[in-house]
Amino acid sequence: MSDDDYARRSYGAIPVGTGERPGIVVVDFQVGFTDPQYPLGGAPLVVRALHNTAKLLKVARRHGVPVAVCNTAYLNEREMPYWKITAVRETFLHSHPSTRLDPLIYDAAYDVHVTKKGPSIFFETGVANYFTKERVDTVIVTGCNTSGCIRGTALDSFSLRYRTLVPEDCVGDIEEQPHRDNLRDIGRRYVDVVDLAFCTDYLESWARRNAL
């Protein structure tokens, strides 16, 4: 089925749009993914997303936008789901340095930090409860990897009834094709795929409205 076939069946016909209160989730920008010294680290699309997300977060924190960040880590292999990735099983442990959040995106004095056990930042972490307290209705999803934890987070965000934005240049994956394919797919159904500039403009305009 081609893009035209989906369009004829009305996929992607209605934009999600933005709401009254934004929040940002930052998924798995731990050094195991951002630092090339680790087996899963340093993919160019992930590094690009890391730097763009850091720019977005500077704007968000300046305007008091809620930010939730996560890493993935386990006590031991018995606690893990049935991961099929050897590097996850061997390195995503609380005792391993690869699970530290990348300092480019983490502000311990501002961000809510959770450690997740599955793909989605929302799964059994309390992030949705935090956003309820903060009256968030629009979630901007950043982080890695697009085909895994970003997709899982976006689907949970949709299921929790948030308006969901995924800036293409603030998420990344190991290869470009699954990055593009998954963004196209979730953009047809669940989210608005946007970019850093769109999200920055949204946060700035939201802040101006609330300053009046």
Describe the structure.
The chain has 212 residues and is an alpha/beta fold. It has a single domain, classed as Isochorismatase-like (Rossmann fold, 3-Layer(aba) Sandwich). The chain is built from 8 helices and 7 strands; from the N terminus they run αβααβαβαβαββαβα. Strands 1, 2, 3, 4, 5, 6 and 7 form a 7-stranded parallel sheet that branches. Helix 3 runs parallel beside helix 8 and helix 6 runs parallel beside helix 7. The radius of gyration is 17 Å and the shape is globular. The mean pLDDT is 97.
What distance separates the N and C termini? Answer: 48 Å
Secondary structure tally: strands: 7
In CATH terms, the superfamily is Isochorismatase-like
Total helices: the number is 8
Oligomer: single chain
Helix and strand content put the structural class at alpha/beta
CATH class: Alpha Beta
The amount of beta strand, in percent, is 15-25%
**Average pLDDT across residues?**
97
Count of domain modules = 1
Q: Might you state the CATH topology name?
A: Rossmann fold
Overall shape: globular
List keywords for this structure.
single chain; Rossmann fold; 7-stranded parallel beta sheet; 8 helices
Give a short synopsis of this structure:
By secondary structure, the protein is an alpha/beta fold. It has helices at 3-8, 31-34, 44-62, 86-91, 127-133, 146-159, 176-189, 196-211; strands at 22-27, 67-72, 112-116, 138-144, 163-167, 171-172, 192-194.
